[in-house]
Specification:
By secondary structure, the protein is mainly alpha-helical. The chain contains 13 helices and two strands; from the N terminus they run H-H-H-H-H-H-H-H-H-H-H-E-E-H-H. The longest helix is centred in the first third of the chain and has 63 residues.
Length: 332
C-alpha cells in the first residue's frame, strides 16, 4: 500500500465523524424550524378560522343569496340569476341613495381629517395639561355609535332638545333639526364629534416628523405655515392616505341616520329624512322592512365592488403625492 493510499484510509474516519457531526447539527436546526412553523400557525389559526367563518362564508352566502328571491322565511324562493342586479341597475331609488352616500363621503371625510389634524397640531404643542386635553378630545371617539346617535337625537329634538332650548331662550324659533333639510347637517356634526380618533392617528404621525427639518426650515426663514405645508404635510401623507381610505369606506357604510331618525315608523322601518336616506339605509330597508334578502345581498355586493374601485382610484391618483420614508415597492 502506498503512502497516498494509507493517508486516504486514515482520513476516512475523520470524514465520517465530520459528516456525522454535520447531520447531528442539522437535525436540531430542522427541529427548531419545525417548532417555529408550528408556533406560527398556532398563533394565526384563530384569526384564519375567524376570517373564514365570519368573513368568507358570510360573503359567499350573500353572493348566493343575490341570485335568488329568498326572503328569509318562505321556502318558496327561486333562482333568478342576474335578475336582482338588473333590477338595481334600473332602480332610481338605489342610485339616489348611492349618490347621497357618495356626497356624504365627499363632505364628511375631508372635514373630519382637517378637524382631526387641527386638533392634533394643537395638542402637540408644549402647553400645560396637554395630556388632559388629549384625553378629553379623544373621549367622544370611545362612545359607541348607538350612544352617540341617541345623544345627538336628544340634543337636537325639536320639542325637548337642548339646542332648540338655547334658540328659544334668545328669541329664535325652534328648528326641526332631525327633518329635511337640516338632518344632513346634524349627520355631519356627528362625524366631526368623533374626530378624536383621527386626532390620535395624526398626533402619532406628527411626533414621527424629525425636528431637525423644522429647525432647518426656521433657520432658512420659513414661516410656520410654510413649514407645515412643505414639511409636515408631505411627511404625514401616508397617514392622511390611510385616513382617507378608511374614512371613505366607513362613511358609505354608516347607519347613523337610522339612530337620528324620528320615532315614527313606516312598514316596520324607522322613517328617515330624504336627505339622509343613504345606500346602507336602503339596504337595511330591503332586508328588514321588505324581506328582500336576495335583492339586498345584491346591493351589498355592488357596494363591495364600488368600494374596491374607489380604493383603487384613491391609490392610483395619490401615488405621486404620497411620500414614503421607504419605497413601499422596493424589493426586500
Amino acid at each position: 500500500m502506498t503512502v497516498d493510499q494509507m493517508s486516504t484510509v486514515a482520513d476516512r474516519p475523520r470524514a465520517g465523524a465530520s459528516a456525522g457531526r454535520t447531520r447531528s447539527a442539522e437535525r436540531p436546526r430542522s427541529t427548531m424550524t419545525a417548532r417555529r412553523h408550528r408556533a406560527f400557525y398556532m398563533f394565526v389559526a384563530p384569526w384564519i378560522v375567524g376570517f373564514l367563518l365570519l368573513t368568507i362564508v358570510p360573503m359567499a352566502y350573500a353572493l348566493w343569496l343575490s341570485f335568488t328571491t329568498f326572503d328569509g322565511i318562505s321556502p318558496n324562493w327561486h333562482y333568478v340569476g342576474l335578475g336582482n342586479y338588473r333590477e338595481l341597475m334600473n332602480d332610481s331609488v338605489t342610485w339616489d341613495s348611492l349618490g347621497r352616500a357618495g356626497l356624504f363621503a365627499v363632505v364628511s371625510v375631508p372635514l373630519s381629517i382637517v378637524a382631526g389634524l387641527g386638533l392634533a397640531v394643537l395638542v402637540n404643542r408644549p402647553i400645560r395639561a396637554r395630556g388632559l386635553f388629549r384625553t378629553l378630545l379623544y373621549l367622544p371617539a370611545v362612545v359607541p355609535p348607538v350612544g352617540a346617535g341617541i345623544a345627538f337625537k336628544n340634543l337636537f329634538d325639536q320639542n325637548a332638545g337642548a339646542t332648540n332650548g338655547v334658540l328659544t331662550f334668545f328669541g329664535f324659533d325652534a328648528i326641526g333639526w332631525l327633518a329635511d333639510p337640516y338632518a344632513r347637517y346634524v349627520l355631519i356634526m356627528t362625524v366631526l364629534w368623533g374626530a378624536g380618533n383621527i386626532m390620535i392617528i395624526s398626533l402619532a404621525g406628527l411626533q414621527d416628523v424629525p425636528r431637525e427639518l423644522h429647525e432647518a426650515a426656521r433657520i432658512d426663514g420659513a414661516s410656520a405655515w410654510r413649514t407645515f405645508r412643505s414639511i409636515t404635510v408631505p411627511l404625514l401623507s401616508p397617514v392622511l392616505l390611510f385616513q382617507t381610505v378608511t374614512g371613505v369606506i366607513a362613511s358609505v357604510q354608516t347607519i347613523m341616520p337610522m339612530l337620528l331618525a324620528p320615532l315614527a315608523t313606516t312598514g316596520g322601518l324607522t322613517t328617515v329624512p330624504q336627505s339622509n336616506y343613504t345606500y346602507m339605509i336602503h339596504v337595511f330597508s330591503q332586508y328588514f322592512a321588505l324581506g328582500r334578502y336576495g335583492y339586498a345581498s345584491a346591493l351589498l355586493w355592488v357596494l363591495f365592488v364600488l368600494i374596491l374601485i374607489a380604493t383603487g382610484l384613491i391609490f392610483r391618483f395619490t401615488s405621486g403625492v404620497v411620500f414614503y420614508n421607504v419605497d413601499p415597492e422596493a424589493k426586500k
